[in-house]
Structure formats: C-alpha cells, structure tokens
Amino acid sequence: MSLLSRFERIMVRRYLLPQKGEGFIFVAAAFSVVAVALGVMALIVVMSVMNGFRAELFDKVVGLNGHAVIQGFDGRLGNWQQIADSARKTPGVTSALPLVEQPLMASANGRVEGVILRGMRLPDILSNKTLTSNVVAGDFKSITPGSGRIAIGSKLADQLGAGPGSEISLISPEGRSTVVGTVPRIVTYTVGAVFEVGIYDYDKAFVVMPIEDAQTLLMLGDSVGVIEVQTNNPDRVEEILRPLQPLVAGRGVMVDWRQMNSALFSALDIERVMMFIIVAIIVVVAAFNIASSLIMLVRTKTKDIAILRTMGASRQTVLRIFMTVGLTIGMIGILIGLIVGAIILFFRQGAVDLVHYVTGANAWDPSVRILTDLPSRTDPVEVAAILIVTLLLIFPAVLFPAWKAARTDPVQVLRYE
Fold it and tell me: What local confidence, expressed as pLDDT, does residue 275 receive?
C-alpha cells in the first residue's frame, strides 16, 4: 500500500515543478539539491580515499615487514631457528621467516645513496606477492644465491641511474681490520630486477638479495637479524605473540605493526574522523538550504493550503505533502552525490594526472604522500551510513516547515482574500 494517496502524489509533483512566478523558489530548491549532492559526494570521496590510503599502506607495510618482527639487540639473533620454530607452532601464527636487514650505502655511476639491505630466502622472495607482483624491469627468478644479482626499488634505480644489468657497489662498515683501522667492505652486484611496491620510502631505499649473500656480505655466518612473523589476525597480534615473550627476552625485542607505524596510523585515524566531521558540515548547510526553500514554498502556497483544508484535507495530509517535497529534494541530491562521487573515485588518478599536466604541480607527490598512486577503497557499509546520516540531518530541517504548513488556519488566511 502506498504511503501517499493519489491526490497527495499529484500535489507533491505540482509543488516540485516550478509554477508561474515561482522561479526564485525553484532556483533555491535547485541550490539545495546541489548542496546535498556536494556534501554526499565529498563525504564518499574523502572517506573512500582515507580508507584506501590506510588499507593500501597497511597491505604494503605488512607485505614487506609482516605483522610483527623479532629483532636481535646487536643486529644478530642467536639461535634463531629455535625462535622461528616456536613461533610457527604458536596458535594464530601463519609464518615466521628469517631475514637479514641492515642499513648500508650503495654506489653506482658516481652517485651514493643510503639503502636498506634485505636478505631473504629464495622461496620467501618468490612467494612474496608485494615484491614479485610489482616488478618494473628484470626478473626475480634471476636472483639466486651466489649469482651476484640483487633487486632494487624503482626510486633507488632512478637516483643511481641503474637498471637490470647495471652494477651497484654495496658498502658495509663491517669490514676487515688493518693496522690503520677497519676498512669498509665493498662488494659489487648486478641488478637483476627493479620493483615498485608503491611506498616511496621503500622504493627509494630497499635492496633485496638472497639471505646467503647478505650473510656473506655482512659476515654474519649463519646468524640472522630479524624474524618476520605473520598471523591470522593482525588486530590480535600482540595477544597471539605473547607466549613468545619469555623465549625472546634477553635475545632481542618483539615489535608489532602498530608499534612500528604507531604515529602514522594514529594520525590517519584522527585525520579520518576530523575530515568526516568537517565535510559533514556541508550536509548541515544543505539541510538549512532545504529548510529555507521549503519555508519559502510554504509561504507562497499559504492560500493553496487554506483551500485544501476547507476542501477536507487534514493536517496530516498537508504534513505528508510538504514532508515528501522536502525529502524528495534531499533524495535527489543524495542520488546525484552518489553518482558523481562514484565517477570521481573511478577517474581519481586520471584527475590527479590531469592537474599535474595542466598546472605542472605534482598534486600527489609520493615523497610527501608516501604512496605512489592515489588510493581508494569504498566501504558499502560506510556509504550506507553516510546516506542515513544525511537523511537524518535533512529530516528535522524538513519537518519544521511542513509542520508549520499543517498548522495553517484556513479561516485566518481566507478572511483577507
């Protein structure tokens, strides 16, 4: 059964479409629609980009660093096999991989850059989708133990002017001792692959090689520096790894993904909430616009309302008519905002590239924004919540003028006509 009678639907259509001499009211209603559309569009775009930024950052950080790492105090984790085996047997842990990680210097073509050496077992390199699915040039399969080949980030390749087949020297301060002091160890490697994971700080610093070659370069023997741990629930990582604390105590420190990136993720969460509040103000303004246009419509239609009342229309009928008019204006704005928001999100990177092409300004500088591309991840539940919140803000703005229309006294109005 319809909520509105046929008569009420006719009146709603009549009041939504501009009549003679009501152009100003129609323009005000059109502005209200635009305001609602802008508010909904901005909320959907901002929240989707913020969600995408956080999710993309989390996926890439965790893809390279795991949900937690166990680090040796002096860069060496003694008896790491026991810790790794105990971690794998811990309920909730899906993998525990040994790594060698050390900051070094790299030199090529007369240029010198600081790098982070990452030594990984060959099967772990080939199974790491964050690396192997983001190859720009070369092939990770060429990076085998003893081959003298390494993989480097795309930004580091640009800074050193290197690519597949180029030679890069890695400089380690852990060298041989002489009568004049310690001589840095310099070993030359060939670039076998260039990758771009999408995080600027990683792409400009990471050097990946087989763990055996890293142990030889750093003279670690069979030791490793880090054990990377993955769990089945990153939100419970601290609870899952708590049983390993006694085993790690005295040998190293255990740091989870929250501690490694606490400042960054906390700032993102705060910014996300603040952006929602700030952009929601647009919707509040739009609600006031709808209220003002509906008030003008009620004032203009006072005589019509009085005639309807004398013809038998109840106050509830008048209330429903004007409530429907106001909510229809809001719903049209919501629908337009939803469509425009989806279009903007679909073409977001093209829009950024267009701004860069037209103005010459880098609207999304990866050295500042961390990620290489503008991300987006739309949450249907969050979109539904945005639409519901918008309607809840519009409803009271519509209710007041509709209630005033329903309270119109036909005797007082028609007395002076």
Answer: 81
